[in-house]
Design a protein that fits this description.
Layout lengths: L9 H10 L4 H14 L5 E4 L1 H9 L11 E5 L26 H9 L3 E6 L11 E2 L3 E2 L1 E2 L2 E5 L5 H8 L5 E6 L5 H7 L2 E4 L19 E6 L2 H11 L29 E4 L12 H16 L2 E2 L10 H16 L12 H13 L2 H24 L2 E5 L19 H5 L3 H20 L3 H12 L11 H6 L3 E9 L2 E9 L4 H14 L7 H6 L5
Parallel strand pairs: 2-3, 11-12, 11-13
Antiparallel strand pairs: 1-3, 4-5, 6-7, 8-10, 9-10, 9-14, 13-15, 14-15
């Protein structure tokens, strides 16, 4: 009888199934028992009966045959809750299964255990919602797991499942991977289908997974990538992602080491850790460091306004009556978007996007890879809405009912003024960002690869103040395989813990 879940990577668990060392049913039982004991609060829904039936009928010859997995709360499985991590849709049930999840479970053979918690509508890089409460970082209880795929990251790093699905629209795979010490890969835009309902707006979302190893993520690409006629932006799958690992000769590849990009302020100790990790990577691969600069506009504020404006369409006639059910940040953001987002702001955002695309193209004419930090610092307090250590206007706006009422009045006034002075909204947003840059710090390092659409990954790069930090590597479009090989080189030469040390201390790896 297996007492604890597998603490190595998913590929090795499949090997254990095939050799008879473990069975899918025993592994699932251990997984469910561990989830029941856990205080991470990283699962919002479990379906033990359905999972156990799948485990008993698992085909271990499949790539993830019999492996218990978490499915991100923003993904859909027919018959399971489809809440978008929001009280507004607490009773909604999925009427379909997403194509990426279908491939993961049917073609890959993975056993879906339940839904991992996410931030509301994927709108924040934190792991707290009104629907689910606080999800904790397994490296230190009381610290955030990040978002929006925070529950998936917490479950994998916390030793509950060896792999879980994720999505990355502005950093939502890489950010929690960085905070939880995991490998997180965001492929080229379109790499994995978002069907059957693939909205274009915001045109940045890429699906993927939170993984303990590079080969796990590569195998996930083998199973889940590929064209889907219901997603016209989906890309062909060249295949052999796992089999082709380590096939890139990295010697002589040019790399720029820029710990911070887009003027994001890094916390103490992060730049030193990133430079040290990047130095180890360059030395072990024979890559050549190139000295260059990368000037990028910080796209986070205008991008967020545009995305929040589209959320109003999903809320439909529930808005604004449903505002009390939303997290304060989402509700306030919707009011701001409703009041400030206009054609002028959309035009400014598009101009910034073109400027950023040009800057990225110019950089990738000079280097093969860019290395920077994934997050500005290690994981912050789990209950905090942002990484900012100071009180922001958002904090003040949500602090008291009277303040909220005044804020709504202000937004209504701005909405009227916007009709007469359409350029005012962008000036206001830029002024807020200039005075309180921490509001857009989270995601400021990752969002460029969502806007530009190039592949980027977060590699565990050691710790700062005892908590993980991520080394983010950016590559050219369609060079996902090369990026896997960069990460693999670091994994082989330097390595990282498969799970958080508190888990490792309690149970030996692979026990």
């Amino acid at each position: 009888m297996t007492d604890t879940p597998w603490l190595d990577d998913a590929c090795s668990l499949v090997d254990a199934f095939r050799s008879g060392e473990r069975s899918p049913a025993e592994e699932l039982a251990a997984t469910l028992a561990a989830i029941e004991r856990s205080d991470l609060n990283c699962f919002s829904f479990l379906d033990p009966e359905r999972a156990m039936d799948a485990a008993h009928h698992a085909d271990v010859s499949k790539p993830f045959g019999g492996v218990p997995v978490g499915i991100k709360e923003l993904d859909q499985i027919q018959g399971w809750p489809d809440t978008a991590a929001s009280l507004v849709f607490a009773d909604r049930i999925a009427t379909y299964t997403g194509e990426a999840v279908r491939r993961f479970t049917e073609e890959g053979g993975a056993v879906a255990v339940g839904l991992t918690t996410a931030s509301e509508f994927g709108g924040l890089n934190v792991s707290i919602t009104k629907l689910n409460g606080i999800c904790h970082n397994p490296w230190q209880h009381g610290r955030t797991a990040g978002g929006s795929s925070g529950g998936s990251a917490s479950a994998v790093a916390g030793g509950l499942v060896s792999i879980a699905s994720g999505g990355d629209g502005g950093g939502s795979i890489r950010i929690p991977a960085g905070y939880c010490g995991l490998f997180g890969m965001k492929g080229t835009y379109g790499r994995i289908s978002r069907g059957p309902h693939a909205n274009f707006r915001p045109g940045t979302v890429v699906l993927g997974c939170l993984a303990r190893s590079v080969r796990d993520a590569a195998r996930h690409f083998d199973v889940c990538a590929g064209v889907d006629p219901r997603d016209p932006w989906s890309l062909p799958n060249p295949g052999n992602w796992e089999a082709g690992l380590a096939s890139t000769d990295l010697a002589g590849k040019r790399v720029a080491i820029l710990p911070s990009i887009a003027n994001v302020r890094l916390e103490e100790g992060v730049e030193e850790r990133i430079r040290a990790a990047a130095g180890e990577l360059v030395a072990s691969t024979g890559m050549v460091e190139v000295d260059l600069s990368l000037e990028l506009p910080n796209l986070a504020a205008q991008w967020a306004m545009g995305n929040l404006s589209t959320l109003l369409a999903e809320l439909g006639d529930r808005w604004p009556a449903c505002a009390p059910e939303l997290t304060d940040e989402i509700a306030l953001g919707c009011r701001m978007a409703e009041s400030l987002y206009n054609l002028n702001l959309a035009a400014v955002a598009e101009r910034h996007r073109l400027e950023a695309n040009a800057a990225m193209a110019q950089v990738f004419e000079q280097v093969d890879f860019v290395i920077c930090a994934t997050n500005p610092g290690p994981a912050f307090a789990a209950e905090a809405p942002t990484s900012s250590p100071t009180v922001t206007f958002v904090d003040r706006a949500r602090a008291h009912p009277a303040t909220k009422t005044a804020f709504r009045g202000t937004m209504a006034t701005l909405r009227v003024l916007n009709g007469f002075f359409p350029k005012m909204s962008n000036h206001l947003i830029e002024a807020v960002v200039e005075r309180m840059p921490d509001l857009v710090t989270m995601g400021g390092l990752t969002i460029i690869s969502n806007i530009y659409g190039n592949p980027a990954c977060s590699i565990p790069a050691g710790t700062v103040r005892g908590l993980p930090v991520g080394l983010q590597v950016l590559a050219r479009h369609h060079r996902d395989a090369e990026l896997f090989d960069v990460a693999l080189a670091y994994e082989r030469e330097v390595g990282w813990p498969k799970v958080a040390p508190p888990v490792t201390a309690a149970t030996p790896v692979g026990a």
